[in-house]
Automatic annotation (TrEMBL):
Protein's name according to its UniProt entry: Gametocyte-specific factor 1-like
Protein's UniProt keywords contain Metal-binding: yes
Residues in CHHC U11-48K-type domain copies: 37-64, 71-98
InterPro entries reported for this sequence: TRM13/UPF0224_CHHC_Znf_dom, UPF0224_FAM112_RNA_Proc, Znf_C2H2_sf
Keyword DNA-binding included in the entry's annotation: no
PANTHER family to which the protein is assigned, alphabetical: GAMETOCYTE SPECIFIC FACTOR 1, GAMETOCYTE SPECIFIC FACTOR 1-RELATED
SUPFAM superfamilies: beta-beta-alpha zinc fingers (SSF57667)
Organism: Stegastes partitus
Amino acid sequence: QMATIRFGPPSSPCREASAAEQAEENEEKIKWDPDKLQQCPYDKNHQIRACRFPYHLIKCRKNHPKLARELKTCPYNARHLVHKHELAHHTETCENRMRVYTEDETDDYAAPFVWGVNTLPQLSPLTRPTNNLGPSFRAPNTLPWLD
């Protein structure tokens, strides 16, 4: 039998969460707990609170320069320090890696970019951009930072 947990006051209509959903929510809270202890990659005897971990990494990197040269930072999470030879595998399997979905181009029929070629339609003198400042104001002929 699956346990259910009710959200909100008992008299209000509310959705019920399964035990699995509740366990997943608790796991997320624990995962991001600022007081959770993490092991320092430079010194295995160091157990650091998650909220202080980035500061500790900077300090410990200075104290262990030889090991610091061997460890590389994960591109998805700066708290992940792995050996050089393991970085490729780590980046493929990192829990913080976000999948990027490619989408179709919005304008499949746009003219291709060619360096030095203007593919935009030319404005005729009649369709020059105008300002709506009124007859007593005029736009400057040159810009001060181009002189």
